[in-house]
Design goal:
- By secondary structure, this protein is mainly beta.
- 8% of the residues lie in helices and 52% in strands.
- It has a single domain, classed as Immunoglobulin-like (Sandwich).
- A hairpin with a 2-residue loop joins strand 4 and strand 5.
- The longest helix is centred in the first third of the chain and has 11 residues.
Amino acid sequence: MKPLALGLFILFSCLNGVDLVDAPRVSQGEITFYLDLAYFVGEADHAYVEFYLMLFADQFARHENGDNSCVTLKLSSEIIDKSGVTVSAASWTTQAMIAKGKPENLSTLAIYDQWTEQLKPGEYCLKVCV
């Protein structure tokens, strides 16, 4: 493996065991979410990494917003290198609109979010909080 690919594999493997299965990782904790990633050649010696998050709407309180209900999520991510140094940290809010009168479908209604990072090759651990 090239160093960049190995470094990103290690970053991803910190999430939930080490294997080569190409499947999203499942969170640990009270809120269940799924995390996946893709990486591409970035600028200079960096990789352009896209992170994808999926959650089911029935885990969250809804509030009214016009003709729809809205779910507001506060998210944060932290990427830590193998020496324990935080190389990236971010917090943001995501809102998802849900049609009124659809409470029976909330257990299968998915909310998606995505963010990107530019990372140097290396070993990383990713923490995501919802």
